[in-house]
Design brief:
Strand content: 15-25%
Low-confidence stretches: none
Shape: globular
Order of helices and strands: EEHEEHHHEEEE
Distance between the termini: 26 Å
Number of strands: 8
């Protein structure tokens, strides 16, 4: 849940956290602030006069971020060189997280989601979405992506890693996709946002 806040010095982004504990959010804030200090395109939360990046109102948690000016670029619109740049940036983010948070124990048995489980979740989300009494533009996009992923599951399920595959793991963004990456008008990546799913996962996930 997020809000655009208009101020005398320009817009800001106010984020209302719905399902995370304060200590988890503060750890995410510390990690993203450290990545931003390494000149990576990561948007760090703003601190108040007491140095706090997380503020509580009753049981609710909020953080304020600088506004990001940019646009999303669907993968198929990227030139090959831009794809290389995106992959290189992801590698630098993984390196940065390794420096900031340290190594994860190897190998960590973190199996890839079962095909049937992934399909069931996608179908459940589709059902919930299609039963909404009032649809918004984001619902149309979500429906398109879910149907697309169901097709990819059917096409590529046989390439899923075996349950006992020894996958290299580390700290990752956890939700790295086009809607969480902003590009400037010249195509250069200017921000990677939404670090709520920062976790230890296989690097190939």
């Amino acid at each position: 849940r997020a809000f655009a806040v208009r101020t005398g010095s320009g817009p800001l982004f106010l984020k209302h956290y719905l399902d995370q504990e304060p200590h988890t959010i503060r750890a995410q804030h510390a990690a993203t602030s450290a990545l931003a200090a390494r000149w990576l395109p990561v948007v760090a939360p703003l601190a108040d006069l007491s140095g706090r990046t997380l503020n509580r109102f009753g049981t609710r948690s909020f953080a304020l971020y600088p506004w990001v000016y940019g646009e999303h670029r669907p993968g198929l619109t990227l030139e090959l060189e831009q794809c290389r740049d995106l992959g290189a940036l992801l590698g630098r983010l993984h390196d940065g997280l390794f420096d900031v948070l340290g190594p994860a124990a190897q190998p960590l048995m973190q199996p890839t989601t079962q095909v049937a489980e992934a399909r069931a979740k996608a179908l459940l989300l589709l059902e919930l979405l299609r039963n909404r009494p009032v649809r918004e533009g984001i619902d149309d996009l979500a429906e398109f992506r879910l149907v697309e992923r169901l097709g990819l599951l059917a096409k590529l399920a046989h390439r899923r890693p075996a349950d006992r595959a020894q996958l290299t793991v580390g700290h990752v963004h956890g939700d790295f996709h086009g809607l969480n990456v902003f590009h400037r008008a010249d195509g250069e990546i200017c921000a990677v946002v939404d670090w709520d799913r920062l976790s230890v996962q296989p690097y190939g996930e």
